[in-house]
Amino acid sequence: MLGGTTEAYALAASLAGDASIRTITSLAGRTTSPRLPQGEVRIGGFGGAEGLAAYLLTQKIDATIDATHPFSARMGWNAAAAAKTAQVKLLRLARPAWQAGPGDHWIDVGDWDEAVSVVARESRRVLLAIGRQELEPFAAITDVFFLIRSVEAPEPMPGFANAELLLSRGPFDATSERALIEAQNIDTIVCKNSGGSVVDGKLKAARGLGLRMVMKRRPARPEVASVATVDDAVAWVRALKR
Ligand code: NAP
Q: Which domains are seen in the chain, by residue range?
């Protein structure tokens, strides 16, 4: 299992009780002391698709589940190529993307440059809810206020002319999101279409307020067999053994 997501932890936990299945979760190793999933764990990159293919073969892996985050741009392609080379079955486990509905005012963007253009043209006060790694392009806009929300402080903090840092860990419900938006007079939220079955608090709050959402589309993924839930992934694994 290529992990690092809530779904991958849940999948590892679901399969842990079955002594007939040996599971190995792979983590990229981005954080110094990651939460460890149940079952076996390995940490660190494989060295591209070739490295992953070699790993699948030497470890005699029967099946791979790509449960990496929807915004992990590279790993899905590596998994597809490696699974083909090593002749290993592959499943993609991914939460469904959020879809705009009635009352939503979404502007979908393919990259942050597009988002910067929209914000520079249309916004005054922005909640930047994109994590702490990709803030830099927005610092070029000097006449817009940014409320930057992240779990940990950006290091280094890009040189924003007018910004405030809000260190805070979700999930956030719609009531508290609405209160924040109103207190800070926010007119735009910039975020990623991370998706999930539970409608996110900021999405609900934005809908109620008719707020502009600048939403980054997910990166392209290869066409592989896919499921949206952990239960379906477990069923796929069990079906392999029949
Ligand atoms: P990425 O762009 O798809 O991957 C970049 C490189 O990191 C890959 O080529 C691979 O290196 C290594 N890698 C990624 N996932 C790995 C895994 N599960 N096990 C071993 N190596 C892995 O991915 P990313 O966006 O940097 O994300 C890294 C990890 O963080 C993923 O596991 C993902 O699930 C998790 N994550 C990402 C986000 C996000 O917004 N991007 C959010 C939450 C969690 P090699 O080519 O050397 O094998």
A: 6-95+221-240 (no CATH), 105-216 (3.40.50)
